[in-house]
Design a protein that fits this description.
heterodimer; A: alpha/beta; Four Helix Bundle (Hemerythrin (Met), subunit A); eight-stranded mixed sheet; 11 helices; 8 strands; B: Four Helix Bundle (Hemerythrin (Met), subunit A); Rossmann fold; 20 helices; disordered C terminus; binds guanosine-5'-triphosphate; binds magnesium ion
Chain lengths: 302, 456
């Protein structure tokens, strides 16, 4: 059998196999040994936790096992889950408020789900009785404004827009003026997807930030970085560079309805201390949930 | 060869091991730990890494250490060869129908870049003499059809659409008929993003395939994808039988280990890579370069190739000399920027230089974006020759005059002068490092190629 075929075969079983394997590993075992640690480490790496963070977590796990003189393999999984939950913080996903209006700037690389998340966020807060306005500051991507407008209609909130190709900071400015005049509780601003390595495009975000801050002190009150859960270790670089440029205050992790686990956020939390506030679990208007670290940690292993 | 990342770690490992003559199992085991880490950090799937490392190990143990290479270099050589070999040859051709039109179907997850890639592919194929038709079959995502229409307009390539109230199968069928009537010989179908575990949506693609019998089904994958790249690729391949893969967003700083994972599970070739938002930013895939990138060794080859194609040797030699001496003026700065610009987007060049990608100073140089270059040029051209030779003497009133003359602002003038100063400093540092001034730094003697540059 060739290399590819062998690999293919082993991979096809991996996913389904993994949960079972871990369960079996732990329940069927009499002792906590090296191969058990190794398999746990693989489960973490397979969930995109990243090699360094996984190794560190395993190290802590080993230490705890020693300290607590644990012998029962069944204790390992809940212990590791607990460690990860602690890493991820309290799970207070409420947004920073200010204003009024509370201004939320949504940023991220191309295609991660910014616009969709904004539609869902608008719905989330609208159904909780808030007056929400959207700003269409993605003036770059073809039909991005139409996309946001469709979401606006779907949710029943207004969208402030200019035409394609215009200055995004000017859109943000107008949107803020409109939000104040109309006594809105919340303004959410969509921005064009951009790779974090393009410094001129990051400058553009800084400018939007500046304009908002000048008009309303404290604005934007929340800068949400949208991360796609299918992204691997590059998400760390995204989080770092977007933070440097725009002062990210929270993460929305999208596309968790797929097979992706989004384990990379553990590393982000450790290194940059940015909390996850919401998760996206589908394309529908209700497919947004406040982040729950405990559930998330459990899901890393299934 | 210039090594960074993995290569440095391996040097370190072997220094500790002091192996002689022949690579022992213990040597190789140590080295493989580093290889494993490097591949995992690059997002290669852990199962793929496992098989790969086992295979490399098999090849490496017992090998004679060649006199020409250090053990570290030898392991790297094996790793690179295996990696590049596994990723296949360069293959940027589409399967063409014996009787036109050729039908190409783009598939993939949400946000992978299918729509943009469809437009880029149409553009590329038109350059090769084809008459493409783009087809809007994403009837789900808000404004997806409009997005394709706008891109088609920009390229002046027709887009076939029937709104979002017909099924993708009906739209695609009608599109192929339309293409036949209109003498279009290439039909590129954009489909909606979908999760590989969504039964209904995957069945829709199967129906589309059955109805159209496409000649080429391309899976579009984000190069930043993590461990699940294998699940995605495997499922799409199983359900549809893929003909090729397009890797997108490679213009960022991702290592792109997904490329290896995908190739490993599907076996089908990566045909193109997307390297920017512009509609001509689609390139053929080069396995050897991807191998270097995954290993963190920079895309030296691409850079060398580009440099050879576009540098004016004499001018470069003169610049290199200037950089090393201190009399580097604003004129030289402008000239140098223009030379570098011929290589492609400045940031991309910097990311391709091994070990330099993370240097802060170079990042600042990268702040001079291509669009900015127009301003930089206008600003420098608005200076008097004396000012260009004496940048330190440009005071406030001169700056204001220059700003007016170039139609920019004093801030812009300030930032150009600042960037010039930083560049000059950095150039001098680089030149010093190259002379062996600072230890530990392995840098080309010149940033730019010339006959006395070992890189070229
Ligand atoms: N399955 C799933 N799909 C999602 C989720 N969030 C967004 N999407 C889909 O991902 C695709 C891209 O979403 P957009 O909202 O357009 O992403 P964006 O970041 O605004 O994209 P750009 O503006 O082009 O950078 C769309 O097809 C969305 O329906 C999610 O939580 N789950
Ligand atoms: Mg968007």
């Amino acid at each position: 059998m060739g290399f590819f075929n062998r690999l293919k075969e082993s991979l096809s079983k991996t996913r389904q196999g993994l949960v079972e394997k871990i369960e079996n590993l732990i329940t069927g075992r009499q002792v906590i040994d090296e191969s058990l640690y190794e398999e746990l480490e693989e489960a973490l790496i397979g969930a995109d936790v990243g090699v360094e963070t996984s190794l560190e977590l395993m190290e802590t796990l080993r230490r705890r096992v020693k300290e607590q003189k644990l012998r029962d393999p069944a204790r390992l999984k809940p212990l590791l889950q607990e460690l990860i939950t602690d890493e991820l913080g309290t799970g207070d996903s409420s947004l920073n408020r200010g204003g009024p209006p509370t201004v939320i700037l949504v940023v991220g690389v191309n295609g991660v789900g910014k616009t969709t998340t904004i539609g869902k966020l608008a719905y989330y807060y609208k159904t909780r009785g808030e007056r929400v306005l959207l700003g269409a500051a993605d003036t770059f991507r073809a039909a991005a404004i139409d996309q946001l407008e469709i979401w606006g209609r779907r949710v029943g909130v207004d969208v402030i827009k200019h035409r394609e190709g215009s200055d995004p900071a000017a859109v943000a400015y107008d949107a803020l003026q409109a939000a104040r005049a109309r006594k809105m509780d919340m303004l959410i601003i969509d921005t064009a997807g951009r790779l974090h390595t393009k410094s001129n495009l990051m400058e553009e975000l800084k400018k939007i930030r500046r304009v908002l801050g000048r008009e309303l002190s404290g604005a934007p009150h929340e800068v949400l970085l949208v991360l796609d859960a299918t992204t691997g270790q590059n998400a760390i670089s995204q989080a770092r560079l977007f933070s440097e440029a725009t002062g990210v205050t929270g993460i929305v992790l999208t596309k968790l309805d797929g097979t992706a686990r989004g384990g990379v956020i553990i590393g982000i939390r450790r290194m940059l201390n940015i909390p996850v506030k919401f998760i996206g679990i589908g394309e529908g208007v209700e497919d947004l949930q406040p982040f729950n670290p405990q559930e998330f940690a459990a899901a890393l292993f299934d | 060869m210039i090594f960074a990342g993995l290569a440095e770690k391996l040097q370190e490992t072997f220094r500790r091991l002091k192996s002689k003559g022949r690579l022992t199992e213990a040597d190789v085991d140590e080295a493989m730990k580093e290889v494993r880490r490097a591949l995992l950090a690059a997002d290669v799937n852990f199962q793929v890494v496992k098989s790969f490392v086992a295979r490399v190990k098999e090849r490496a143990v017992g090998q004679d250490v060649l006199s020409s290479l250090t053990p570290a270099q030898q392991v790297i050589k094996i790793v690179r060869e295996e990696l590049a070999g596994l990723m296949g040859g360069t293959q940027s051709k589409l399967n063409m129908a014996p009787k036109p039109p050729t039908v190409v179907m783009m598939v993939g997850l949400h946000g992978a870049g299918k729509t943009t890639t469809a437009a880029k592919l149409a553009n590329l194929m038109r350059k090769q003499g084809r008459r493409p038709l783009l087809v809007a079959c994403d009837v789900y995502r808000p404004a997806a059809i409009k997005q394709l229409q706008v891109l088609g307009e920009q390229l002046d390539i027709p887009v076939f659409s029937m709104g979002d109230r017909h099924t993708p199968v009906d739209i695609a069928r009608a599109a192929v008929e339309h293409a036949t009537r209109q003498g279009r010989d290439l039909v590129i179908i954009d489909t909606a993003g979908r999760l590989e575990i969504n039964e209904e949506m995957m069945a829709e693609l199967e129906e589309l395939k059955a109805a159209l019998r496409p000649h080429e089904i391309l899976l579009v994958v984000d190069a930043m994808t993590g461990q699940v790249a294998v699940n995605i690729a495997e499922t799409f391949n199983k359900r549809l039988g893929l003909d090729g893969v397009v890797l997108t967003k490679l213009d960022g700083d991702t290592r792109g280990g997904a490329a290896l994972s995908i190739k490993a599970v599907t076996g089908c070739p990566i045909k193109f890579v997307g390297v920017g938002e512009k509609l001509d930013a689609l390139e053929p895939f080069h396995p050897d370069r991807m191998a270097d990138r995954i290993l963190g060794m920079g895309d030296v080859l691409t850079l060398i190739e580009k440099a050879q194609a576009s540098f004016d040797a004499e001018q470069v030699a003169r610049l290199n000399k200037k950089i090393r001496s201190a009399d580097f003026t604003l004129d030289d700065f402008l000239e140098q920027l223009q030379e570098v610009k011929k290589l492609g987007p400045i940031q991309q060049i910097i990311s391709m230089l091994p070990g330099l990608g993370n240097m802060k100073k170079l990042k600042e140089l990268g702040d001079i974006d291509d669009r900015e270059l127009v301003y930089v040029e206008a600003i420098i051209r608005s200076m008097t020759p004396w000012e260009r030779a004496h940048p330190h003497e440009i005071n406030g009133s001169r700056r204001r005059r220059i700003a007016r003359g170039s139609g920019t602002s004093v801030q812009k003038v300030n930032s150009v002068l600042k960037q010039f100063e930083q560049t000059r400093k950095m150039m001098r540092q680089l030149a010093e490092m190259g002379r062996g001034g600072k230890k530990g730094a392995r840098l080309p003697r010149n940033l730019f190629p010339g006959k006395d540059n070992p890189l070229f």
